[in-house]
């Protein structure tokens, strides 16, 4: 379904994109993060000029007009309408358990089983004698874990998409008619093709910083790679991804998991008390993934 969302977005079929995004988010909540990277591309030809932001009043006026863009409002309306329609239909069949197990469960989720997430060990330490009971520290951490994940995946996606829009608009002419036509064609042919990479970055960050992370979650971002790799710089100088650097990235990604799995084997199969070592392996995996995503962003050819 995410593939269809991306396809609709690339062809600028915004209403179909909104409806499919609602279906995707209803099926699996994480695709909702893509809204932040889609919105900057919608209705860009009707946005006010950036030079309005010369003072506080101009800045407020700019963002008010940006948010009240009719095409963006229509996209949000279709998304919310479709989402709540699906939610209402399922609620009629199954009642409150739909809300509990599909959405509310994720808010206070405190999984005690070991996984790749760096949060698992602090959450595990917060468990009390009852497996379903947690102390305030664990509850607070379970909620606080959303902050870095949401800021980096949602706001980061918005910044990447908006930077492309601003770059595109700066190359347009001053005449409104010419500027509108140029913006539309440029967005379709040049800037929109970078959306798969922005989706990839958002998903990679979301999975890496999720409260629960298992191997199946990697498939959420790995399928973007065939769309992303052709746009990476292969220069051996600077920030390009040379053959050596590509092999290093793969080795770090696989090696960090292998290190974690070695400790997981000692814990799960041999019963050794290696929780600190397992958590340290998760921190190493977080560092490796952080370096990988930063390297990919710096080596991506945004100016193609």
Can you walk me through this structure?
The chain has 304 residues and is an all-alpha fold. Helices cover 67% and strands 0% of the residues. The chain has helices spanning 2-10, 14-27, 35-38, 56-67, 70-94, 96-107, 120-125, 136-144, 146-169, 176-191, 195-208, 219-222, 225-228, 243-268, 275-299. α5 crosses α6. The protein starts with a helix and ends in a 5-residue tail after the last helix. The model is unreliable at 173-185 (pLDDT under 50).
Task: Please describe the topology of this protein.
Layout: H1 2-10, H2 14-27, H3 35-38, H4 56-67, H5 70-94, H6 96-107, H7 120-125, H8 136-144, H9 146-169, H10 176-191, H11 195-208, H12 219-222, H13 225-228, H14 243-268, H15 275-299
């Amino acid at each position: 379904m995410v593939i269809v969302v991306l396809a609709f977005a690339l062809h600028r079929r915004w209403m179909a994109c909104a409806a499919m995004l609602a279906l995707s988010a209803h099926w699996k909540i994480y695709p909702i993060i893509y809204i932040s990277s889609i919105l900057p591309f919608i209705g860009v030809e009707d946005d006010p000029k950036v030079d309005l932001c010369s003072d506080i009043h101009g800045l407020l006026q700019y963002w008010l007009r940006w948010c009240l863009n009719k095409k963006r409002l229509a996209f949000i309306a279709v998304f919310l309408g479709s989402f709540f329609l699906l939610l209402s239909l399922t609620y009629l069949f199954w009642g409150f358990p739909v809300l509990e197990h599909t959405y509310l469960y994720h808010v206070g989720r405190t999984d005690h089983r070991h996984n790749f997430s760096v949060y698992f060990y602090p959450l595990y330490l917060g468990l009390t004698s009852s497996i379903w009971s947690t102390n305030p520290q664990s509850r607070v951490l379970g909620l606080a874990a959303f902050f870095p994940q949401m800021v980096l995946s949602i706001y980061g996606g918005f910044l990447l998409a908006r930077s492309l829009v601003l770059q595109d608009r700066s190359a347009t002419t001053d005449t409104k008619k010419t500027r509108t036509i140029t913006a539309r064609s440029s967005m379709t042919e040049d800037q929109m093709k970078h959306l798969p990479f922005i989706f990839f970055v958002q998903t990679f960050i979301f999975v890496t910083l999720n409260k629960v992370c298992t191997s199946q979650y990697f498939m959420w971002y790995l399928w973007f790679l065939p769309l992303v790799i052709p746009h990476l710089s292969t220069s051996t100088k600077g920030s390009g991804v040379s053959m050596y650097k590509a092999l290093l990235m793969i080795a770090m990604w696989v090696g960090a998991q292998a290190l974690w799995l070695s400790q997981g084997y000692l814990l799960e199969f041999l019963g050794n008390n290696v929780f600190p070592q397992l958590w340290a392996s998760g921190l190493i995996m977080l560092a490796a993934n952080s370096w990988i995503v930063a390297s990919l962003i710096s080596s991506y050819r945004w100016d193609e």
